């Protein structure tokens, strides 16, 4: 069966779906995107993703393409038309089609909305087989990383560098301060010798990850010690455990950084517990709202 996409009010086979070559997303990266995990027919952390979409759009002065209620209906219809209950949804809003000019169109045009979904493997059940390794790389992205913009060239270059070294992700750091920001497409976490879970605090330097937010809520509910603060590359080297989170990584243990094992190179007890906690969250045992 052909995959079905939603493009500016129409549901089309993806082989026939297209956008105008003067779409500002194509020409300038003038747009916002979200990626949402569909599991058991539920969009995981849907409210968080839609709230982040609204926030990112506000930050670049771009209106929502439709009401939230209408957008939720589109998301469900895309899943229904593709006959999927397990998948990964991508939605993108751009400033629309206008003659090429860096400034916004003098006469506003309707925002453009594209929604696609694809099948993904079943949710992981064996944490010991869900591990990965990372490299570290300078953070070359723009100053407003808290906006989920479609401008992802530095992220692509970092991910490619990781792939060429046999790793799954690049953990980025500030070249001036040596402080870690986040992964190229993930939130990055460490666990210190006391068992405290640490991830960088929110700000313009990192994306407010929805999986990050969900996991922090679960940490608080479970009474697991955590800190939101800057941490250095040397702290990563000394960490007892490390992991990444995202809509596609869930809670993914990192067992080596730049070729050196994290602690003993095996999944640690804290990350093992967090993997189980987040699995409950995904399967409906914990709240998915903000």
UniProtKB/TrEMBL annotation:
Does the keyword Nucleus belong to this entry?
Answer: no
The Swiss-Prot or TrEMBL record describes its family as follows: Belongs to the class-IV pyridoxal-phosphate-dependent aminotransferase family.
User: Which EC numbers does the record give?
Assistant: 2.6.1.42
Q: In which pathway does it act?
A: Amino-acid biosynthesis; L-valine biosynthesis; L-valine from pyruvate: step 4/4; Amino-acid biosynthesis; L-leucine biosynthesis; L-leucine from 3-methyl-2-oxobutanoate: step 4/4; Amino-acid biosynthesis; L-isoleucine biosynthesis; L-isoleucine from 2-oxobutanoate: step 4/4
What functional role does this protein have? Acts on leucine, isoleucine and valine.
Catalysed reaction, written as an equation: L-leucine + 2-oxoglutarate = 4-methyl-2-oxopentanoate + L-glutamate; L-valine + 2-oxoglutarate = 3-methyl-2-oxobutanoate + L-glutamate; L-isoleucine + 2-oxoglutarate = (S)-3-methyl-2-oxopentanoate + L-glutamate
Keyword Amino-acid biosynthesis applies: yes
**MF-aspect GO terms:** D-alanine-2-oxoglutarate aminotransferase activity
Which EC class, in a word?
transferase
Gene3D superfamilies under this entry? 3.30.470.10, D-amino Acid Aminotransferase, subunit A, domain 2
Q: What is the name of this protein?
A: Probable branched-chain-amino-acid aminotransferase
Question: From which source organism is this entry?
Answer: Plastoroseomonas hellenica
Q: Which UniProt keywords apply?
A: Amino-acid biosynthesis, Aminotransferase, Branched-chain amino acid biosynthesis, Transferase
Stored Pfam families? Aminotran_4
Q: Which InterPro entries match?
A: Aminotrans_IV (IPR001544), Aminotransferase-like (IPR036038), BCAT-like_C (IPR043132), BCAT-like_N (IPR043131), Class-IV_PLP-Dep_Aminotrnsfr (IPR050571)
């Amino acid at each position: 069966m052909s995959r079905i996409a939603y493009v500016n009010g129409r549901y089309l086979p993806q082989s026939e779906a297209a956008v105008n070559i003067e779409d500002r997303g194509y020409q300038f990266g003038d747009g916002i995107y979200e990626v949402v995990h569909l599991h058991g027919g539920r969009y995981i952390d849907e409210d968080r993703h839609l709230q982040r979409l609204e926030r990112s759009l506000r930050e670049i002065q771009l209106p929502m393409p439709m009401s939230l209620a209408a957008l939720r209906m589109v998301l469900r219809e895309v899943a229904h038309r593709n006959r999927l209950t397990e998948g990964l949804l991508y939605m993108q809003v751009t400033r629309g089609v206008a003659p090429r000019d860096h400034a916004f169109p003098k006469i506003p045009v309707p925002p453009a909305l594209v929604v696609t979904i694809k099948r993904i493997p079943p949710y992981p059940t064996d944490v010991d087989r869900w591990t990965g390794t990372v490299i570290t790389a300078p953070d070359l992205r723009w100053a407003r990383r808290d906006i989920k913009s479609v401008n992802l060239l530095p992220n692509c270059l970092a991910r490619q560098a990781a792939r060429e070294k046999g790793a799954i992700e690049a953990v980025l750091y500030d070249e001036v301060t040596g402080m870690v920001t986040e992964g190229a497409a993930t939130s990055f976490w460490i666990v210190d010798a006391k068992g405290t879970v640490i991830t960088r605090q929110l700000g313009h330097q990192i994306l407010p990850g929805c999986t990050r937010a969900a996991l922090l809520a679960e940490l608080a509910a479970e009474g697991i010690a955590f800190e939101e603060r800057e941490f250095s590359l040397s702290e990563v080297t000394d960490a007892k455990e490390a992991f990444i989170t995202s809509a596609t990584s869930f809670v993914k243990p990192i067992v080596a950084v730049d070729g050196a094992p994290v602690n003993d190179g095996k999944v640690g007890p804290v990350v093992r517990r967090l993997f189980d906690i987040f699995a409950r969250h995904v399967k409906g045992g914990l709240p998915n709202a903000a």
